[in-house]
Write a structure and sequence with these properties.
7 helices, mainly alpha
Length: 171
């Protein structure tokens, strides 16, 4: 029929609930999320996911091989850190509310793609277990405690909080 036009099919998806967790985070998932964001005309999500994909591409070129899931999570964390720092600067300047809102939204999106962070009592239990297993007793062992506890968490913990807990537990 001439002149009639069908409504485009809108691609709807609940992000990032369906991709939560590092065990499923890989390059193919990022690419599929970019495609979904393009179909949904979600420009903020598309922009931040393209930054992540670019960071993944840089890692691939440096290592001259495909990236691992851990490297994809590391790329996500790097972009999250950069975006968070930009957000802090934008808040301090306080002149562009739209930019601050966009950055806040993008930080929330990126945090949704990362695995859950180990915090609080669970982190304290890990630190106590590492101290007991390693026989650490002095403040000078703090670096080894932090490294071992971070490895046990799979890197999914706040290092500052980890250092605070480790410092309080060591003599």
């Amino acid at each position: 029929m001439q002149g009639s036009r069908e409504e485009p099919v809108r691609y709807t998806r609940t992000w990032p609930d369906q991709v939560k967790g590092a065990e499923r985070m890989n390059k193919d998932l990022i690419v599929s999320e970019i495609t979904a964001a393009m179909r949904a005309h979600d420009k903020p999500r598309l922009s931040i996911l393209r930054q992540v994909k670019n960071e993944i591409g840089i890692k691939e070129k440096e290592s001259q091989r495909d990236v691992t899931d851990e490297e994809v999570v590391a790329a996500l964390k790097k972009v999250l850190k950069q975006t968070g720092e930009t957000l802090e600067g934008s808040i301090k300047v306080g002149t562009d509310d739209a930019r601050t809102a966009l950055l806040t939204e993008q930080v929330a999106m990126l945090e949704g793609y990362l695995p859950a962070q180990v915090t609080g009592d669970a982190l304290a239990q890990i630190v106590e277990r590492v101290i007991a297993d390693g026989g650490f007793t002095e403040k000078r062992d703090m670096g080894r405690v932090i490294a071992a506890a971070a490895a046990e968490c799979g890197g999914n913990c706040d290092k500052a909080e980890l250092a605070k807990i480790a410092g309080s537990k060591l003599g």
